[in-house]
Specification:
The chain has 129 residues and is mainly α. The chain has seven helices and three strands. The chain has one domain: Winged helix-like DNA-binding domain superfamily/Winged helix DNA-binding domain (Arc Repressor Mutant, subunit A). The chain has a three-stranded antiparallel β-sheet.
């Protein structure tokens, strides 16, 4: 991620509602949420207000949208969010890995790569955070 993209992302995230939307979409997973569901989660915000904030986030590359019938679903753009964290941490260690250890620990959400032998068994379970 370059400086201009990072600045656009941080500008979009510097508003409380947009920050709350991104956090909501991150926890929703790749399937995302409908615009109406997002609005309800934002204390019943109006559709025009949600449209404005979601457009800002999409323009910054932090969320993506897709149409399903008459509904629009929004998802977190995980690669862009990872790129933003990588941009911040790119030069953190400067040869001293202990500097980055707390950050790496904080980013460890307990998500483990799926065990290939348990794919069938785990497909029916939903993990909650």
């Amino acid at each position: 991620m370059d400086v201009n993209r990072a600045l656009a992302a941080f500008a979009a995230l510097s508003q409380e509602t947009r920050l709350r939307i991104v956090r909501l979409l991150v926890t929703a997973g790749p399937e995302g949420l409908s615009a109406g569901t997002i609005g309800e989660a934002m204390d019943g915000a109006s559709s025009s207000r949600m449209s404005f904030h979601l457009a800002q986030l999409e323009q910054a590359g932090l969320v993506t949208s897709r149409r399903e019938g008459r509904s629009i679903f929004y998802s977190a753009a995980y690669p862009a969010l990872a790129g933003l964290v990588e941009f911040l941490m790119r030069d953190c260690c400067q040869g001293h890995p202990e500097v980055c250890t707390p950050v790496v620990a904080a980013l460890s959400c307990g998500c483990a790569a799926p065990d290939p032998s348990a794919v069938g068994a785990s497909a029916s379970r939903k993990t909650t955070m």
